[in-house]
Amino acid sequence: MLKSGSEIEDQVIAILVLEQFQNKISDQILLSSGETTLLLDGVPDSPSLTLKITDDEEMTELNQRYRGINRTTDVLAFGADFTDPDLESRYLGDVIISFPQAEKQALERGHAVEEELQLLVVHGVLHLLGYDHDTQSGKEAMWEIQSQVLTELGLSIKVEET
Hints:
By secondary structure, the protein is of the alpha/beta class. It has a single domain, classed as 3-Layer(aba) Sandwich (Collagenase (Catalytic Domain)), CATH 3.40.390. The chain is 44% helix and 25% strand. The chain has a five-stranded mixed β-sheet with strand order 1-2-3-5-4, sandwiched between helices. Helix 3 packs across helix 4 (113-128). The longest helix is centred in the last third of the chain and has 17 residues, at 136-152. The radius of gyration is 15 Å and the shape is globular. Mean pLDDT is 89; it is low at 1-9.
């Protein structure tokens, strides 16, 4: 498992990538997606979080354990929101992304897998920040900020459901 990260003004984003996907992913793309999301949402402090890229097997296990759904999914966000004593900063939580699902969705939507991964990072980080799409008003708010972040990243992905 590869571990890398970024520190910008005390903000730490750790990246964990399963070995079989390490050569298929640019850490910088993942980092910039997370950083841009935090910046555009106007997060007042400098929080830390973890982004993990994994396979469908682990995603199915996590989805079953925490949501009671026995199948894979594209992205899961596990909010924590506590002060990390080692980093002395607010830890937002973990965003877990299935690389196989990102590949599949990128193909279906007609764009590169890197763009799909960026979308999924943005979406997951927004969940950590408290956004949700379980109501129409919540969905509208989440999709608006998600669209702003994607535009800032230079992407023109239009997504109805993530």
